[in-house]
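[Q] Does anyone have a clean structure-token version of this?
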Amino acid sequence: MGEKVVADGFGLSDRQRYRRKLQQCLAGLARLLAEKRFDRPQNLMGLEIELNLAGADGMPRMVNGDVLERIASPDFQTELGMFNLEVNIAPHRLGGRVFDRLAEELRAGLGYADRKAREVDAGVVMIGILPTLSQRDLVFENLSDNDRYTLLNDQIVAARGEDFALDIQGVERLTCTSTSIVPEAACTSVQLHLQVTPARFAAVWNAAQAVAAVQIAVGANSPFLFGRELWRESRPPLFLQATDTRPPELQAQGVRPRTWFGERWVDSAYDLFEENLRYFPPLLPICDEEDPLRVLDQGGVPRLQELVLHNGTVYRWNRPVYGWVDGVPHLRVENRVLPAGPTVTDVVANAAFYYGLVRALAEEPRPVWKRMAFEDASANFDLACRHGIDAELRWPRPGRSGGVATVPAVRLVLDELLPLAAAGLDAWHVEPADRDFYLGVIEERCRRRVNGASWQAETFRLARESGLDREAALAATTRRYAELMHGGEPVHTWPMGVE
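[A] Here you go.
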């Protein structure tokens, strides 16, 4: 089947035709769900990591094309900015020593990519937001050489109709404007995929939404943007504002942003795809020739390309994914909450905590989403982004008495969630050695109240106290971070300071 852009400029009639095609895709998805045509998952997980390229001086390097040419592997791809890469790890079956195997693959792949990057005076840095990025780095000229990124930028800019306003109030305040979506490229994340059956999808997605704030609290790693110290995890407010197609008048009217936590617990995967179509106009006018309903009538399985593409332009922190492999469709929950880094060990520990916790919560007889308002989950996410490991979160009290209490995130993790995550990993048949080591990393972060964001903020403070000006302190912090990142010891063990 071929693809085509429906029209230059994507006018009103083209949008109407494209929306009709999306409705056909949604009807096709509904039929697939009703006919139970989906693959039965084999406990498969997947992982993607977005990366930064920086020189030995800690400053960003706009050389991803040169680096990818040298890497010459389909596992590595471009991302939005010329200082970005993305690495995709092949799916793994959850169980056994999966997390140690995953860590070994990541170390080998990232080490190889770093060596190739050094051939063009750059290096790989795994961090939520590179502290040395400046506003002059995040301009249209530094968009990666990919027609899809250019088209996406043009469509979002046209939909907004004016410059993007960035205004983030944290420890300090940042206000600036941008004429493009390229500031989004500052946000580098880890994406965790879990294949699920349609019957289990809602429970897994609801569980993932409930724990998103906890993931951020223990994993925050993005305290700086454009030289300002903002939220402990500044990616979510930056991503929201850098991709916001709503001019101020639509924001005031309550129109939903494309970067979205959501507003309710769900009963099926269909709920989320339908919301995406109902609330968000299509951006990428790329039309496939497939007729999904005709394919179904003929006994085949449609790819639903327009629905997949549209789904990819709605930036939920837990995203529903429709996939198609060898003629068999499947569903995944894509968890997009976590920042990249700080080390491979930290990334894998975050993954183990997530997969174990979601498994346990999804199987509870009294699930957390029946005992907790969605508004609490959404507010928790905001609080965790602002305060990181020092956040206090709303969570259901243990026992049958009910009620929701405010509790420090570290106490919630240590007293309640780590045992649940351990039980979940046992249910996945993960070896105890893997379970204990990687959950032990999360435990020690909480006991010491140290994660990537707190380390960066304290190291920057010490650098400033040593006499460095702001720009030099940020560069020194970045260089020290990169050194310790490549050393591989988890962040809670890192010494504070630039030396």
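[Q] Thanks! Anything notable?
[A] DSSP finds 17 helices and 17 strands in the chain.
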